């Protein structure tokens, strides 16, 4: 136990002052102005255009797997090669689709979301 008083920064340090290694102080009005901008609306729209359909598609895919596993045992137990059946392949497809969705989102974010978000942040903090 170090006996540090509550609220003290780790190692006794104080929070950085604005302009000295930390972000500039941004007022709530400035945040609202950025939030109301067309550029922010486009950023939000671009995120939603990717995230919502992809989430819905994956949930349908996952639910289909669960339902097939529960109610279509004959279909899922169809042998493919040796002891490998269709159910195992579809289950492995769940993992593969998770990795593919993650890759696609990172690619989308790097190309479409991050540049706009970085520009908005720089403008808001006065770095631009």
Automatic annotation (TrEMBL):
Keyword annotations: Membrane, Transmembrane, Transmembrane helix
Amino acid composition bias (Low complexity), ranges on this chain: 7-24
UniProt keyword annotation of Nuclease present: no
Regions that span the bilayer: 50-72, 84-106
Ribosomal protein in keyword set: no
Region of interest called Disordered, as start-end residue ranges on this chain: 1-24
InterPro entries xrefs: DUF485
Protein name: DUF485 domain-containing protein
